[in-house]
Amino acid sequence: MRHGIRRIGICSALAAGTLALAPTAEAVSPTTATVSFDCGLYGSGSATLTATQSGTAATIELSTSAITAPINVGANSVKSTLTLTKNGSGSVAFTGNANPAIPAGGAVSTGPLNGTVASGDSLEAASLKVVVLGITATCNATSAQTPGPFVF
Q1: Strand 122-132 to strand 44-54: parallel, antiparallel, or no bridges (unpaired)?
Q2: From the CB of residue 86, how many other CB atoms can be counted at a distance below 10 Å?
Q3: Mean pLDDT of the chain
Q4: Closest Cα partner for 26 from 54, 66, 62, 59?
Q5: DSSP labels, 23-42
Q6: Contact at 8 Å (CB) between 151 and 29?
Q7: DSSP string, 37-64
Q8: Cα–Cα distance for residue pair 49/120, rounded to 1 Å
Q9: Residue spans of beta strands (DSSP E) within 39-145
Q10: Which residues contact 146 (CB under 8 A, 6 or more apart)?
Q11: Is the pLDDT score of 15 beyond 50?
């Protein structure tokens, strides 16, 4: 009987060791930020960016009042590229074509936009290209991201 107790103790110790060695979830900070965009003839306004991370994969959801839909836009029909300044000098693009249905006159929401990050990357929105119904709107950031860049 004592031999059976020893096995349980070893299994419990192994299980505890496995849990202690499990990797921690990656975290991006801040998770939400705002930035202003100028989209030329298509308007200007602020955008809310929400970032998440899982290892080296990251996603950013974007909602902006800078661009509104001229007519009803179906789900998953907006193609978007968000370019972010990476570590103050380079750049990285997050892309995607997922969006909820957008009513005529409604603000454009897009995402998740997918990209790849490395630990310590600092990313700040620089420009946004949105293709809606074959029309391309290019927007440039006119303010710094608040409260600051995303740090992965």
Answers
A1: unpaired
A2: 19
A3: 86
A4: 54
A5: PPPP--BSSEEEEEEE-GGG
A6: yes
A7: EE-GGG-EEEEEEEEEEETTEEEEEEEE
A8: 19
A9: 44-54, 57-68, 79-86, 90-96, 107-116, 122-132, 135-141
A10: 33, 34, 35
A11: no
Predicted model pTM: 0.80
Q: Which two tokens stand for residue 128?
A: 């946004």
119 Cβ contact list (under 8 Å, min separation 6): 26, 152
Amino acid at 5: I
**Which residue in 15, 29, 7, 149 sits closest to 90, CA to CA?**
149
Exposure of 27 by Cβ count < 10 A (0-12 exposed, 13-18 middle, 19+ buried)? Answer: exposed
Element of type H or E holding 20: helix 2-21
Q: Which two tokens stand for residue 143?
A: 């303010």
Mention every residue, 6+ apart, whose C-beta is less than 8 A from residue 116: 56, 57, 58, 92
Average pLDDT of span 89-99: 95
Q: Taking 80 as the threshold, does the pLDDT of residue 25 lie above it?
A: no
